[in-house]
Amino acid sequence: xxxxxxxxxxxxxxxxxxxxxxxxxxxxxxxxxxxxxxxxxxxxxxxxxxxxxxxxxxxxxxxxxxxxxxxxxxxxxxxxxxxxxxxxxxxxxxxxxxxxxxxxxxxxxxxxxxxxxxxxxxxxxxxxxxxxxxxxxxxxxxxxxxxxxxxxxxxxxxxxxxxxxxxxxxxxxxxxxxxxxxxxxxxxxxxxxxxxxxxxxxxxxxxxxxxxxxxxxxxxxxxxxxxxxxxxxxx
Length: 235
Description:
Layout: E1 11-15, H1 23-31, E2 35-39, E3 50-53, H2 59-68, H3 72-80, E4 85-88, H4 90-93, E5 96-99, E6 110-116, E7 125-130, E8 132-133, E9 148-153, E10 155-159, H5 164-167, E11 168-174, E12 176-184, E13 187-190, H6 198-218
Parallel strand pairs: 1-2, 1-3, 3-4, 4-13, 5-6
Antiparallel strand pairs: 6-10, 7-9, 8-11, 11-12, 12-13
């Protein structure tokens, strides 16, 4: 896939909280034209236009690390202010109320919990698998329904309640079906690793940057600070 956007594009803060190697996501976002900076503290979010929260592993240590860095409240405020957020793998799972893996409370942005994959023939679920859309979204522009993306996980978020259907953007089958992408207004999340999914992943990340650019432009010039700290949410 050829680079389609000039450098110096959308300012994207990739949140580093010690939950995985950030090189692949930084390189992929840079390739599609984003101006990437690594965020390790609240001040690093202030000049960003979009946030990407990647990560692998369990929710409890992730929430503890985010809390120690003072990033929980600023990220929640970021979302509440309507700013673009993309969660990848663990970054998606943190959007739910909590995790059955270790009992941790998480962001609570989407009603539901992260649960072990049901009926899975193998765990962890590692490798390429089809992502089947439940509805259209600009995130998947230029990608055929059922495109393969790369997964590494044993748990997935399960939306619950009245909004479950509304937030479910795509599903994948691995023994049973699980939610592999969510959409809640300014918040997007994917269970697969877009940054490790070749041309399809780059296309999706490019779509995210264009969607986030349009969302940011539509929000107008006024920007409230997301906050200088906050440790709520750590267990």
